[in-house]
Design brief:
The protein has seven helices and six strands; from the N terminus they run H-H-H-E-E-H-E-E-H-E-E-H-H. The chain has 158 residues and is of the alpha+beta class. Helix 4 runs antiparallel to helix 5.
Length: 158
């Protein structure tokens, strides 16, 4: 019963934002599982759930592994956003211009994001070369990367 309840809690948290233990108790009850707040509190501890902020400024429960993946992805995107100046393309190659001494961090961020169309990267001091896989078009990937880095608004005032 405990294992089933904990699996249902994880399933519920994947489907909706839950802010309190009472909301978890109510959601479990809706699925035909009776539990007390004290039981849910122990489940939260055993499952390693944590509260994370939402865009609206409130908090909701999430698995700690999800938070770590989310934080890492956000850090990688932050690196791209703050370091990439321009993305150009030629055939199956992207040429990514970066701020001085940030090309290696940008290449690492692109590699760590495991972005399927990009086979690999090579970085210098201010430039990253990225090879785009056959079947994907470099212009499309360059556009997506430029959008991801939001270049138009991030540096025009600099």
């Amino acid at each position: 019963m405990k294992r089933r309840r904990q699996m249902r809690i994880l399933s519920i948290l994947q489907r909706k934002d839950i802010s309190t233990q009472e909301e978890i108790v109510d959601a479990l009850r809706e699925e035909g599982i009776e539990a007390t707040q004290a039981t849910v509190s122990r489940d939260i501890k055993e499952l390693g759930l944590v509260k994370i902020p939402t865009d609206s400024g409130t908090y909701h429960y999430a698995e700690s592994s999800t938070v770590q993946r989310h934080d890492i992805s956000q850090q990688l995107l932050h690196t791209l956003y703050n370091s990439v100046l321009r993305v150009q393309h030629s055939d199956c190659m992207l040429v990514i211009d970066t701020l001085p001494a940030t090309a290696q961090a940008v290449a690492e961020a692109i590699d760590a994001l495991n972005w399927e169309p990009i086979i690999g990267t090579l970085a210098g001091e201010r430039t990253v070369f990225a090879v785009v896989s056959p079947g994907d078009t470099a212009p499309e990937i360059a556009r997506e990367l430029n959008t991801l880095c939001d270049q138009s608004s991030s540096r025009e005032g600099s």
